[in-house]
Amino acid sequence: MKFDQPAGANPIDRGTVIGKPQVRVDGPLKVSGLAPYAYEYHDPAPNAAYGVMVTAGIGKGRIDTIDTVDAERAPGVLLVLTHKNAPKMYGKADFPKPGPTDKDPKGAHAAPQLQGAEIKQFGQAVAFVVAETFEQATAAAAMARVGYSNGKGRFSLAAGKASAQPDPKGKDAHVGDFATAFATAPIKVDTTYSTPNHAQSMMEPHATLAIWSGDQLTLYTAHQVIHWSTQGTADTLGIPREKVRSISAYVGGGFGSKLEIYGDSILSAAAARQLGRPVKCAITRPQTYNHTTHRPPTIQQLRLAAGRDGRLTAVGHLTWTGDQEGERGELASDQSRLMYAGANRLIETRFTPLDLPKGGSMRAPGEAAGLLALECAMDELAVELGMDPVELRIVNDVQYDPTVGPSRPFSDRKMVECLRQGAEAFGWSRRHPTPATLRDGRWLVGYGMSAGIRNNIVMPSGTRVTLRRDGTVLVETAMTDIGTGSYTINAQTAAEMLGLPLDKVTIRLGDSLLPKAAGSGGSWGANSSTAGTYAACMMLRAAIAERAGLSGDTLFADGHVSAGGKSVALRHVAAAGPLTAEDTMSYGDLTKQFAQASFAAHFCEIGVDRVTAEIRVRRMTSAYSAGRILNPITARSQCLGGMTMGIGAALMEELVVDERFGYFANHDLAEYQVPVHADIPALEVLFVESLDDKSSPMKARGIGEVGICGVGAAVANAVYNACGVRVRDFPVQLDKLLDHMPVMA
Ligand code: MOS
After folding, report:
1. Is the shortest distance between the CB of 256 and ligand 1 below 6 Å?
2. pTM for the structure as a whole
3. Catalytic residue at 684?
4. What is the tens place of the pLDDT at every residue in 143-160?
């Protein structure tokens, strides 16, 4: 089925199961420990050997010597792979450049390991030790002796900023005459923020169990997009893609980190083939921080100018970012194409090569870091204007893509509704605009707010649905559930479409043998995968109606299909034998014709200790617009997670770079600080619900990433309102406040 016209009324609109608060259908398996994660499979490979990576201890340079004699002789050791004996592997550069229409380019997800003495990043695998037990492999890995020549790496974005070049991956925009508009405006801010490297820090580390059967490889692995795992692994190993099956039935979070493949899958697969025996590997928690991807750092200059009425006349957002050569960096300026009105715009990204671990996607790549800066700069502009920051955002709302013009309207932009309803629920009117005015004992109390946007992406996604002989339905798709609720919303979709209660629907996900699906990334998963299930169900409805001898408009409700005054129980239709339908939803150009994005408004109350400058979030309210809310329970959980992660970005998260060796020094959850329960008060989530008929027949948009978009700026703006100190170098921490705290009686 192709979605290339706005959706009309359709069976999803009945809303008897979709849109209802439904607890997770996979919940009982998870809380009883019966949902297996990649590393926990035992039965498929009771004789699996254990692999442990040895990772590089320098950020750039070469391996001069590698001595694995002791490791090889250690008890239980079966194999030690290094660059000297590893099989040949292939990277992106080994494949022809993809054409513009190639959706699955060869090598795009390749991740070769142990292919030479060159060290490109700290944490790169330099050896892989396989033994009978995990303990033996770990002990032997510690016996590997590696001698390096330490090269001169580029590890500091600030140092590389001066020589940074325009980033072809950024969506730069030059509209109108920014320079003149900025120079002549009566009110303006020119302010620079920085955001550090961030780590996804998902609960389940990357892990893989690799099993060969002849030339067929099966991976039980932790991945967000199943076909990227199979393609990446096959391309790297130089085997046909159809020879790899990947299973990610349950995934313990990803936040972008599991969009890629790493040493766990590639080295387990290579070692298992060599040993003729299954091999499993979990990347250790400390290794995840330097071996896998992270969010790259930014420095962002915001130049905003407005008339005295607050209307923006010039929007300038210049981001400097850095990553390994040829990679992307953090495209923090991009959302400023869409966020606010303003006739003159200068949106730019500059890139400098860094020799830090390779960057990648982390929850709302681009927006999450970009809005930290843009939304604090808007707060600064509100101060300059003497205007309420909510009103400043409302007067600059725009119902079309402000970079293109009115020819590209938003499909459904409810930012003002989010701002007004969020402000009302939070009690924004009680805010005092003068910093350090509100007191609660030793706490200075501040209110801050921000707005958020996240571009809506759709992806082709397929599903197979089967009406089984007993009248129940089986839903199968290679979609993943990374803790987000994919199982539940896809089961709800099928139940709604076929007029069955949810307990008559069984669902299987996360196996590459199932129909190719959108996967979980870029907030496209919920809308796109359920749209695929919708397409398959439309086909199954037609098959059911035909067998039931019904024609014309059919209604599927209460376990029956009806048309033209006749009604047949699905049980009776099924009794003649199962019926199966499989389809993929694909898309026309509605995301080009219409700007599509989800929106948010955040309101935060902060306490800053007037003596110690300790910062505590006291409460927070966020309002979100993401079209139809498919399931308010799972959607709310996504938002709570985004708010929590946004508070972390504001106040805690920072990968600390050791610039001598180019590594992230705080590489575990003790030192890389993320919020814990005690840091997070009651959070309130509101949905401004609507139907987006341009997004898909589900009329829903992405919600996973808009959850975090803008959150941290509301926190930082609340800190400013509490104590009058504006910190422009994230995270906002007490040592950056202490010297500037107001003197108080
Ligand atoms: Mo996302 S950062 O595309 O998982």
Report:
1. yes
2. 0.97
3. no
4. 999 999 999 999 999 999
